[in-house]
Amino acid sequence: MMCVGNDDDVRAVALGEQGAIAGIRKGAILVDHTTASAVIARELHAKCKSAGIGFVDAPVSGGQAGAVNGQLSIMCGGEQADFDRAKPVLDAYAKMCALIGGPGSGQLTKMVNQVAIVGLLQGLSEAPNFGRQAGLDMQKVVAVISKDAAQSWQLENRWKTMVEGKFEGFGFAADWMRKDLNIALAEAKKNGAHMPGTALIEQYYGRISAAGHGRWDNTALMGLLARD
Question: Of 81, 82, 119, 184, which is least surrounded by CB within 10 A?
Fold first, then answer.
């Protein structure tokens, strides 16, 4: 298993004379948990196959807490036989692990996941900011709306830190989310998907990074509203 930063990091670890593929015995499985592009996933699948090695692209969701508690969601791409062999190991730290499709499908699914999350986070930034500006007791508001259609993990677990403007020392970094969004936007250019909201939110994360807060939690979108 490997989990690094981006496509270039994956290539640096997996390829070359000193890379993982060169050092793995035939018949083994290489699992990549990095959130990277579908392009690199398909590239590694081909390289591994030619070397007699199985490959599964398997980006994860669940953050640091999910990793620590063995409660990650793992979205996989690859061949069924390779996935079946890897899954008993993946299950040791997963609450959900599924093969979505062929090589690259795991990475594409992670893109869907990140696009859905940032759209939700932008709404969850604007909503409590609006409520606060309107003079509402947000604890009471959240107690009501979290029990109906507005319910989400982010609302229940992040509303308090968002309202208090606390974004340091926890969660998924804004820079990481921005990296993931750029991967998704690049894929969208190729497949023709229109994602204007995602493109705008990527620019918001760019503002957070430019201000020197790239390691803040990705809920820092609300911090921009507080300053605007």
Answer: 81
